[in-house]
Specification:
18 strands, 5-stranded mixed beta sheet, 23% strand, 482 residues, binds iron/sulfur cluster, alpha/beta, 18 helices, 41% helix
Amino acid sequence: MMIGLIQNDERLESDIRDLIYAFFFGVKIKKVTDTSDQYDLYVDVKVTGEQVAFSLVKEDMIVGQTFCESLDRNPVKESIYELLSAYTGKQLPWGTLTGVRPTKIALEQIEQGKTIDDIQTYFLDTFHCTKQKVDICTKVAENENRILQGISYEDQYSLYIGIPFCPSTCLYCSFTSYPIASYRNRVEEYLKAVEKEMDYVSEVCRNKRLISVYFGGGTPTSIEADQLKRLIEKVKQSFDFTYVREFTVEAGRPDSITREKLKVLLECGVTRISINPQTMNQETLRLIGRAHTVEQTKEAFYLARETGHQNINMDMIVGLPGEDITHVEKTLKEIAFLKPDSLTVHSLAVKRAANLNIQMEKYRASLKGATNEMLELVDDYASHLGLSPYYLYRQKNIPGNMENIGYAKPGLESIYNILIMEEKQDIIALGAGASSKFVFRSEHRIERAENVKNVEHYITRVEEMIQRKKAIMEDKYGHVVL
Ligand code: SF4
């Protein structure tokens, strides 16, 4: 579907686009000056002084029209939402909220002393979300508020280390990931480059308190057990672990897990791991390019328990190609049988660089996307498992405009997951494709230092990655002579 966007003022464009995408998944929007092309629909936006008129035009006929008496963001979004809702006959569960972090709004209001009733009323009146979404959003914000008590944002920080190798590439992957089989001989050089970045960061942060460490990627357990051990030992030598409350390693792919690696993680003080089925349907696993079986996922989970891991997360995805609610229920039943300590559910997002997007024509017919019904089912299962929602975020390009939610047993939530979503604390990230976030709270701004994604480039240009960090860190943490 093609939609033409006609506008005499571009200030409102980003919000209008987000809402069009939310109503018409997979649509292409083109900026045009009139309705002379053969597009399926035109959205015409005319700003006059402090007023704006919106029209929907199809085959030269006006099929919908509304006005807004203000150019403020919320009323403008409300007007376009109502127009598109009337035209499509659809209501969006998240209403006019198109942002990535709806819980951030709720958490800020809790911190300002507002009651949950007041916050819920504000969400319902301002954003037109459904009561179900408002409930989950405020519940998450309450849990975040409880979990974040005692965390100081000024003198504490978290550390992320990216290992960009995986056993194979998943169809929907948009992360920095290289197949380990072809990159095994680059791992040593890669780890040396990470160590170089680590030397710089640990020196600059020596007067700050490290509170959480996260190894992600990629799949960190793709590298050998002895390499994993050396890397963790290096981290522990370089940073003071006195205040570290959580150390997570994404064991992610079951086909990367061995008893030896699980033992290394436990012996090196890793407190939380993730073993990710994504789906418990064998046919889907094959379709999405995960080279492991459902049985392997279960075996990896039992092995982790047997080795002594007491905080295991499982990730699943709803809305995978070919899957409907019966597939989701099967996955949930299998997961419920294993009883993980936390469950993270992602609504499938179709990212531009992912193979799923590149080969979209092949998958379009089988791709229905995540539905509210699926997420409600996940919520039911999570609640039966004693898991409570504690972080939530949304991504662009999720069909149906749904969300991702993390559930956990009380006390076993990942602080890192909350901190990265709520953008309250510095997160210093090492490795290819890693992005560090520096929060300047008093100035209400965030600065990012991005590392290059390409592994070869990262290895050869690690000094430049250090300089990128240095430019921000010296401003924030002070000058360090190495
Ligand atoms: S396991 Fe994760 S990082 Fe690796 S290919 Fe799959 S989606 Fe990408």
